[in-house]
Amino acid sequence: MNHASDTQPRDVAVLLNAVPHPAADASEPFVVANERQVAVAYRIDETEFERFGPFAEGDDPFCAVVFSEAAFHQFGPPNDDDLDAHPLAQHGLRRYCAHEIENSSLVLDTWGQASAADGWRHFVLTFQDNTYECVAADCTLVGIYGNGDIARREAFSLCG
Fold first, then answer.
1. For residues 41 and 141, what is the distance between their CA atoms, to the nearest angstrom?
2. For residue 156, which of 56, 30, 58, 46 has the smallest C-alpha distance?
3. pTM over 0.85
4. CB atoms within 10 A of CB 30
5. Of 53, 56, 136, 159, which is the most buried if we count CB atoms within 10 A?
6. Residue 70: phi, psi to the nearest 5?
7. How far apart are CA 139 and CA 65, in angstroms?
8. What would the DSSP string read from start to end of the chain?
9. Bridge partners, 134 (sequence order)
10. DSSP bridge pairs for 74
11. Per-residue pLDDT for the chain (160 aa), expressed as one digit of tens each?
12. 8 Å CB contact between 40 and 73
């Protein structure tokens, strides 16, 4: 019997348009988690200001993103210089972007064929100094804030 994953290419990195791209200098994203969800706050790239603004003069825009019903998350290497060594680099993974990995090997190999039907999705955010991966039901932009302190407080309140 053929499964959808048998006929579709594995590990296709697709950009998430509803989530801002991290700034190239977003070297210290803030990650907070509980048993149900994970929130990540990070500085957004200037190219995203028009799409997610307007911003007041002097703002340093950050966003908070929440991953609902997270089953797995990992924050660590590679950094932007070594991103080409990531197994997903040859499948469309790009620097300073938010991605969903369609037909993810991580999800299928860890949770099995029923995982897609169960709603598990694989997300990857790439930053200057590290990469963040999460398997969750969804990835949602919670908000855009004028600075990192506000975004971190919002992220913490979501998982606190």
1. 10
2. 30
3. yes
4. 17
5. 136
6. -65, 130
7. 7
8. ---HHHHSPS-EEEE-TTSPPBPTT----EEEE-SSEEEEEEEBPGGGHHHH----TT---EEEEEEET-SEEEEE---STTGGGSTTGGGT--TT-EEEEET-HHHHHHH-GGGTTTT-EEEEEE-SS-EEEEEESEEEEEEEESSHHHHHHHHHHHH-
9. 73, 123
10. 133
11. 344 445 678 999 999 999 999 999 876 899 999 998 999 999 999 889 889 888 888 899 999 999 999 999 998 899 889 888 888 888 889 999 999 999 999 999 888 877 766 789 999 999 999 999 999 999 999 999 999 999 999 999 998 7
12. no
Residue with tokens 């200001």: 49
Q: What single letter denotes the amino acid at residue 110?
A: T
